[in-house]
Specification:
Helix content: 55-70%
Distance between the termini: 39 Å
Number of helices: 12
Largest sheet: 4 strands, antiparallel
């Protein structure tokens, strides 16, 4: 909401009580647009915004004299009595020079309603989504809906006045809800269920600052606070149609809140499992490093064993040749015995070394097999823990997907509702 800037002349008028006739007129006259006829031609704005599973484009043009006049100081003069009662909102919404603009928007959205076979509730959502798509920007002075449309920006009361004007002209019982304590304004749409905001006479909140569901009361300000006070209800028109899909919104928002809580719980569990898995992966890496070290030692011992056996076999070949030489009288018996003893000693030494290498190999093999059994058992535990982690992440992601759908597509209420009712219970 904005601060209302009173003209300095008002103070003078209040002092000059002698000018009673003009003073009374000033107190009771309505704010309205004084067209600036020095501007000719038209100004236009085009909007494309999402709705359901598609998008809608609207084109609006207004006389430049109306737009420029709305921005002039004279058009923004608000009588003192109107400020006290906030009645000026009604005058700003319903200035007759804006009727052409309202009609253009409603003609185009009514065509969408017919071609898309929208229900009355969906038509409320279509108009709301159009206004919610307008970028939120705060200005000090209040602005007429025609300014909001052409400028393509507005704050809470700018956008709410525009939406209230559209809804009432479309036949809906809509009002402006002004939360003076929170300096916030929104639209109220008549409903007959429990979604109505307290002490409003049965009107549900319809936020305009950004995409949101009709009846959603969970609007929060930047500092984290929410709406608490009783709003001033300001009539915007004479429509009679009500919004009836509040029960679906209640189900959607209840699922959103429970999903958010469950996602937080699953996230904490996932984080804990992640830490556990990281520790287990470090242990597995250590197991694998130790196993590789033992395998290398086994290979070394086996290589040494094979080398000793090869050398022992070479000695055996020499012994056979020595036997052959002795049998063919190439050497004497004394020579034979001397050489045989040398070869026998060498072979014994080699076979002893081979036995030691083999013993070392089998010892490492036993150690390897024991460690590998531990590794397999630990890896099985890791696999089970990882399966639990994956299941938790999968469950978390499913709820995250639904949660993201809920918070990102309030303009697709029926689809979101069907997704919620067909999703896992929380």
């Amino acid at each position: 909401m904005k601060k209302i800037i009173l003209p300095i002349l008002l103070v003078i008028f209040l002092i000059l009580i002698s000018c009673t006739g003009y003073y009374l007129f000033y107190l009771n006259s309505n704010p309205h647009i004084y067209p600036d006829d020095s501007y000719t031609g038209t100004l236009a704005a085009e909007y494309t915004f999402p709705f359901k599973d598609s998008s809608v484009t609207l084109f609006v043009s207004v006389p430049a004299s109306t737009y420029q006049g709305a921005g002039n100081a004279g058009s923004k003069t608000i009588p003192y009595t109107k400020i006290l009662t906030l009645e000026y909102y009604n005058n700003i919404i319903n200035d007759p020079l804006q009727e052409e603009m309202y009609a253009q928007i409603l003609d185009q959205t009514d065509h969408v309603r017919t071609s898309w076979s929208l229900t009355d509730d969906e038509y409320v959502e279509l108009l709301a989504t159009f206004v919610q798509s307008i970028p939120y920007t705060t200005k000090e002075d209040y602005r007429y809906p025609v300014e909001t449309v052409i400028d393509k920006f507005g704050d809470c009361d700018d956008k709410s006045m525009l939406l209230a004007g559209l809804l009432t002209r479309a036949g809906y019982d809509a009002v402006l809800l002004v939360f003076e304590e929170e300096s916030h304004a929104t639209v109220g749409i008549k409903t007959t269920d429990t979604t109505a905001y307290p002490d409003t006479g049965g009107y549900a909140i319809l936020e305009t600052t950004s995409y949101s569901y009709v009846t959603d009361k969970s609007f929060t300000f930047e500092d984290g606070t929410s709406l608490k006070s009783t709003p001033v209800v300001i009539t915007a028109g004479e429509g009679t149609k009500i919004y009836t899909a509040g029960y679906q919104i209640e189900a959607i928002l209840a699922y959103r809140d429970k999903a958010a809580e469950l996602i937080n719980q699953l996230s904490a569990k996932t984080e804990s499992n992640t830490n556990t898995l990281e520790t287990m992966e470090e242990t597995i890496t250590q197991y694998e490093n130790d196993l590789n070290s033992l395998a290398a030692l086994m290979d070394a011992k086996l290589s040494a064993y094979n080398a000793y056996i090869d050398q022992a076999n070479a000695v055996t070949t020499q012994q056979k040749k020595l036997n052959s030489d002795y049998s063919s009288n190439k050497i004497t018996y004394a020579e034979y015995v001397q050489q045989w003893d040398i070869l026998k000693a060498e072979q014994t030494e080699l076979l002893t070394a081979a036995d030691e290498a083999w013993d070392g190999y089998t010892a490492y093999q036993t150690e390897y097999e024991t460690l590998y059994a531990e590794y397999q058992a630990y890896f099985s535990t890791y696999t089970s823990t990882y399966a639990t982690y994956s299941s938790t992440v999968g469950e978390q992601n499913r709820f995250v997907d639904i949660y993201n759908l809920i918070i990102s597509e309030p303009y697709n209420r029926e689809y979101v509702y069907q997704t919620v009712v067909n999703s896992p219970n929380l």
